[in-house]
Each structure stands twice: as C-alpha cells, then as structure tokens.
C-alpha cells in the first residue's frame, strides 16, 4: 500500500491531504498542490481528474515545490499508486495503431528506444506483464506515461499527446 501527502503551499505548508489509495478526483480536498511527500509508493499523479492530463511519476521522497516533480503548474487532481509487481516484465510495441506494422518485444528498461527499435513513434502497445513508465524523450526525460497490463490500441489510450516514446523503464525499479 502506498502513502502520499499533498500540501497546498511550498515546503510542506498549508492545508494537506493524505492519501493511501487511488483517487480519481482530489479537487474537494485541496485547491492547489505545491509540495508533496511520498512515504511509500511509487505514485503517478495527474494534472486533471480521472487520471488525465500531464502525468508525473513520483518515487519515495520529498518534493518541496512543483519544479521538483517537473510540474507545469500547481494543479494535481488525481493520483494512482503503482502496485508492486513480482514476476516477469513484458510488452510489445508497434509502429502503427491496432498492433500493426513492425513490432518489438521488451522485457527490460530502455534508455533509447530508437537505438533498439529504429522507430521514434510508437502507435500501439500491448503490456503483458508488469507496470511500465514511458518517457517522451530518450534517457528518461520529457512527458511521462504510466502503463498497466492491457492493450493500448493507439497512443492516446495511455494518455499521450503524441506518439513519441523515447525511453521506458519498469516501475519495479523504484521500490
């Protein structure tokens, strides 16, 4: 089980709200979020309700202001704890929507998907095992996206604004 505390002001000041499970709408608990403490996790936090908008991956630690989690603003409206997974990690990426075109299977982290797959754009993905974090840029930079086991027929299914996937890592690397 995870534990995360949201604070309205920087440096863990102001009203706070503690959460230990997924929450699809945090708006009724606080107006803004300017600092966060993650006591156990990791977590994915979202700019908008219902796990939409910018996504930010947070491992255990303290985030005294939104720049520490690479936030674009003080709006955090939903959160999801990333469950610990014991076992294999496996996914397939496709160059086109609906699992078409060239594919490549991954079982481990990749700091530069283009070096391995020779495609900069990934249009669909099937996560068979484990929980993964996709990054828009190589070397685990840029926008972040959380993928649970399941089918993602187009990049918008994992909440992306474009089809670029530069790197990815297994969420287990953060426990």
Automatic annotation (TrEMBL):
Its biological purpose is as follows: Crystallins are the dominant structural components of the vertebrate eye lens.
Q: State the oligomer form and interacting partners.
A: Monomer.
Tell me its family: Belongs to the beta/gamma-crystallin family.
Classify the source by domain of life. Answer: Eukaryota
Which species is this record about? Pelobates cultripes (Western spadefoot toad)
A Pfam family of this chain: Crystall
Q: Name one GO biological process term.
A: visual perception
Offer an example of a GO molecular function term for this protein. Answer: structural constituent of eye lens
Annotated keywords: Eye lens protein, Repeat
Official protein name in the record: Beta/gamma crystallin 'Greek key' domain-containing protein
SMART domains the UniProt entry points to: XTALbg (SM00247)
Name all Beta/gamma crystallin 'Greek key' domain ranges: 2-40, 41-83, 130-172
InterPro entries for the chain: Beta/Gamma-Crystallin, Beta/gamma_crystallin, G_crystallin-like
């Amino acid at each position: 089980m995870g534990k995360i505390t949201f604070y309205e002001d920087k440096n863990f000041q102001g009203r706070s709200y503690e959460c230990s499970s997924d929450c699809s709408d945090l708006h009724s608990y606080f107006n803004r979020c300017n600092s966060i403490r993650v006591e156990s996790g990791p977590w994915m936090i979202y700019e908008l309700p219902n796990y939409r908008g910018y996504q930010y991956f947070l491992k255990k630690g303290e985030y005294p202001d939104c720049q520490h989690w690479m936030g674009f603003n003080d709006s955090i409206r939903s959160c999801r704890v990333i469950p610990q997974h014991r076992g294999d990690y496996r996914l397939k990426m496709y160059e086109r929507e609906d699992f078409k075109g060239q594919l490549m299977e991954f079982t481990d982290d990749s700091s530069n998907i283009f070096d391995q797959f020779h495609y900069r754009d990934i249009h669909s993905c099937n996560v068979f095992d484990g929980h993964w974090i996709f990054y828009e840029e190589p070397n685990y930079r840029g926008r972040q996206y959380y993928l649970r086991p399941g089918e993602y027929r187009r990049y918008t299914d994992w909440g992306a604004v474009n089809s670029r996937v530069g790197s990815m890592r297994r969420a287990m690397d953060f426990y």
